[in-house]
């Protein structure tokens, strides 16, 4: 495997703030790699360090084995797609896409041909003559993508590229990006604060928190085996059993995560290899295929996911009433210890 991007002990300080704090990571060539985390956790700064728009305060960055320090952005084998698209409003779409090639001194015939190819790649073959203002948000996003792809970079950096789109279009573009990634076979490094997006698209995800990486793993591993309380909470919002309640229920002070879909409401309180807990229903939220029940157990709030029976006339009859007392149970094996 070829390593596309490697961080070794990289920090980037802004005054006293460590936007990126001693981060080490490796992105393999051809991977769809996501950087996931809340606002201000250092994702964008990490991406800008790869692009060369920022320089590390300490540590080293290698791109395809080559030390990146001192290499200007345009000489790096990477291109960036920004959330705000950054298209030139007065230029038509074809010229927008060809712009980077013009700066590189590539002749007109050649660059317009390449621009058309890139537009075809993002399914906008007939839009070259239009201006950005004459396109929808989703189409502008595709143009921004075409513009970043026209130089045939080995690494494509995407900074929350779908953030401005409505949910339906965002989901459609997620599928398109994933398909494009598969077709091109190049490395994608994708910044997002949307855990669903990161899980559904990526080969691996790095979870950022306060400038540090908490865990890097494949989506399924992150979801089923979170290593820290932060990851358990941020990726898939697991319940965390901790403190005195952990001691009471598990006879251990180690915090555990337990997924809402692994908890059941039961009548039998003697199931083998299960943890049982009594609680009070605080809220019932109907989500169509599922319902989410919030239950207070010893002062801690637990989310419980229930499948709804879509075939009956009264498909909410199985749901508990707010304020009622319920017995929860979950398999001991479904609990994941956290650091
Ligand atoms: P978001 O999802 O909101 O874009 P992020 O995870 O991408 O957040 P960064 O933009 O990398 O986070 O910012 C990380 C931290 O560094 C924040 O505290 C931010 O305020 C700070 N920061 C980033 N760029 C600068 C700058 N140019 N000058 C000063 N502080 C900065």
Keywords:
OB fold (Dihydrolipoamide Acetyltransferase, E2P), elongated, ABC_transporter-like_CS, cell membrane, binds adenosine-5'-triphosphate, alpha+beta, Rossmann fold, about 350 residues, 18 strands
What do you see in this structure?
With 339 residues, this protein is α+β, with helices and mostly antiparallel strands. It has helices at residues 43-51, 93-103, 108-121, 137-149, 167-184, 195-201, 219-224, 229-234, 243-250, and strands at 3-14, 17-28, 32-36, 58-63, 66-67, 78-81, 155-159, 187-192, 204-209, 212-217, 239-241, 256-258, 264-265, 274-286, 290-297, 300-307, 325-331, 336-337. It has two domains: 3-226, P-loop containing nucleotide triphosphate hydrolases (Rossmann fold), CATH 3.40.50; 239-337, Nucleic acid-binding proteins (OB fold (Dihydrolipoamide Acetyltransferase, E2P), Beta Barrel). The protein contains nine helices and 18 strands. The chain has a six-stranded mixed β-sheet, with helices on both faces. Strands 13-17-14-15-16 form a five-stranded antiparallel β-sheet, covered by helices on one side. Strands 2-1-4-5 form a four-stranded antiparallel β-sheet, with helices on one face. The two termini are 31 Å apart. The protein binds adenosine-5'-triphosphate. Residues 14, 17, 19, 37, 39-45, 193 line the site of adenosine-5'-triphosphate.
CATH architecture type of the largest domain: 3-Layer(aba) Sandwich
CATH class type of the largest domain: Alpha Beta
SSE string: EEEHEEEHHHEHEHEEHHEHEEEEEEE
Say what the CATH topology of the largest domain is: Rossmann fold
Whole-number tally of structural domains: 2
The share of residues in helices is 25-40%
Cofactors, ions and other ligands in the entry: adenosine-5'-triphosphate
Main sheet overview: 6 strands, mixed
Instruction: Tell me the number of helical segments per DSSP (H or I, 4 or more residues long).
Output: 9
Structural class: alpha+beta
Organism: Leeia speluncae
GO molecular function, one term: ATP binding
Keywords: ATP-binding, Cell membrane, Membrane, Nucleotide-binding, Transport
Domain ABC transporter: 5-235
